[in-house]
Design brief:
Number of strands of chain A: 11
Shape of chain A: globular
Distance between the termini of chain A: 31 Å
Largest sheet of chain B: 6 strands, mixed
Oligomer: heterodimer
Distance between the termini of chain B: 42 Å
Radius of gyration of chain B: 13 Å
Largest sheet of chain A: 7 strands, mixed
Order of helices and strands of chain A: EEEEEEEEEEE
Order of helices and strands of chain B: EEEEEEEEEEEE
Strand content of chain B: over 45%
Chain lengths: ~120, ~110
């Protein structure tokens, strides 16, 4: 158990649906991240929040909308997704704010399928 | 810009034999380097991290990696594979100056009985 919990574990949605992914960390960390893991591709950083402020947005389409209401919770709101958005979405957290040099603690991910 | 290349997409070893997972990197600055492991249906877990201290880094579960600047490599090794080592392994390079962290495409390790 890494201390980072993601729900749901699996999600199937149609292209017109709206859904949200949730991440919670109980480690007292200061930064939280969303990553996308697609088959045969390197992990793609989507968003970084440091002290609840978004500090990185890696050219992610607007159909993905993150929210960080406090340092322990991170959401990814999804709407009008495409089939190519099907992937494993991983949440991570880290203690420090120099986030590119930090040890990351990952959740188990949400396996998303878009039909 | 920096990059990382994992030279093998799949490595298969027999239980009790050595493991070698290869990683080469490209970085214009002194990088930090990491190895993460991902077991099926799990998130990634840090195995070890190099940050310009000792070039031989020891990690969890008997793994270690050696930073070789002249070869721009950071290969992961273990003397004796265990069945529980079967997983996906990711090499990561990061540059603190640019706040840029790049993951390799991963190497799937299979351990045969």
């Amino acid at each position: 158990e890494t201390g980072v919990t993601q729900t749901p574990r699996h999600l199937v949605m149609g292209m017109t649906n709206k859904k949200s992914l949730k991440c919670e960390q109980h480690l007292g960390h200061n930064a939280m991240y969303w990553y996308k893991q697609s088959a045969k591709k390197p992990l793609e950083l989507m968003f970084v929040y440091s002290l609840e402020e978004r500090v990185e947005n890696n050219s992610v389409p607007s159909r993905f909308s993150p929210e960080c209401p406090n340092s322990s919770h991170l959401f990814l709101h999804l709407h009008t997704l495409q089939p190519e958005d099907s992937a494993l979405y991983l949440c991570a957290s880290s203690q420090g704010l120099s986030w590119a040099n930090e040890k990351l603690f990952f959740g188990s991910g949400t396996q998303l399928s878009v039909l | 810009a920096q990059s990382v290349t994992q030279l093998d997409s799949h490595v298969s070893v027999s239980e009790g034999t050595p493991v070698l997972l290869r990683c080469n990197y490209s970085s214009s600055y002194s990088p930090s380097l990491f190895w993460y492991v991902q077991h099926p249906n799990k998130g990634l877990q840090l195995l070890l991290k190099y940050t310009s201290a000792a070039t031989l880094v020891k990690g969890i579960n008997g793994f270690e990696a050696e930073f070789k600047k002249s070869e721009t490599s950071f290969h992961l090794t273990k003397p004796s594979a265990h069945m529980s080592d079967a997983a996906e392994y990711f090499c990561v390079v990061s540059d603190r100056r640019d706040n840029d962290m790049r993951f390799g495409a991963g190497t799937r390790l299979t351990v045969k009985p």
